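Can't paste images in this forum, so I'm doing it all in text. The chain is below; anyone willing to post the predicted structure tokens underneath?
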Amino acid sequence: RVEKDGKTLGYGAVALRRLDRECVDVGNYVLPEARRQGVGRSILIQLAFAALARGLRPTAGCAYTNEAGYRTLVSAGFSTLPWTEEGWKNTCRKTTGERGFPRPSRN
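Text version of the structure:
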């Protein structure tokens, strides 16, 4: 959780995966008035380091329409991976072919 002057600006969450136990999904929520100030990035970085310290791999994703979320994930160190026949791979899952993002590749 990130606070300023006693007010919560944003918070994060970690979800354990049932089938892929070496990974955890991390996510965040930031109040609209606190966005674009590094709050979400800070939360994601803290969660990622906490996961890594426990020997887990942090993963995250966002809706393909969520450009701000995508930028936040990338700025926090998450990377995109291409679509494969097996399905989405770990980490930030943003390959839509829309709004300037790359189209999915079929490796």
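The first strand starts at residue 2 and ends at 4. Residues 39-53 form the longest helix (15 residues).
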